[in-house]
Amino acid sequence: MIFRHYRSAFVNATSNPKPFLVSAKTMVMQNPIYIPSGLTVYLVVTALLSNARRRKSRRKGNTNVFDGSVMLRALLVVFIIGFAAAALYVSVNPPRSVLGTTLFAFIALAGLFGFPSPIFLGPKSVEQHFWWGGNITMNWNDVVHVEFHKGPTTTVIRDHKGRKIIHSGFHCDTQLFLDLCQKNAHTTAVISQF
Q1: pTM recorded for the entire structure
Q2: 119-192 — its CATH code?
């Protein structure tokens, strides 16, 4: 009986272009061809990580520059503009929502901090430049710990002051970065799964 009810609901859903309620708790979408949002996010993140893995670092003199890909930057710009526009739209059009405006504005601002900051790795030091003006510079003599996380392909360098530089999976050329860090810091990286 229940199966027949859901089967008839599916047949009605595919023939009627408007959504309808099967029960008070269940909404059936009319278009049977859709991609779940979780799968879409997974495919986009996987494509970005794969793109970063394939890209090689740039050389400037005797310094290697490890940066995020153009595809990642373009996606983040679209992300930031989209959520900023959503915040503006929700704040102007009725019914206005302070919570919605705040939430969309917060997500847009968080996207600004999502840009992978370029890392400049030279024979004497390693530097990370942030777009908002903060820089971290470490001499190789001051580096006390290098760790590599296999799952997210992230390398973390720490100095004796507790500062850290993070080479994420969205930066290019992960293996070269890890090899150069171990070579210049004269240490072996601690490798963990996550």
Answers
A1: 0.74
A2: 3.30.720
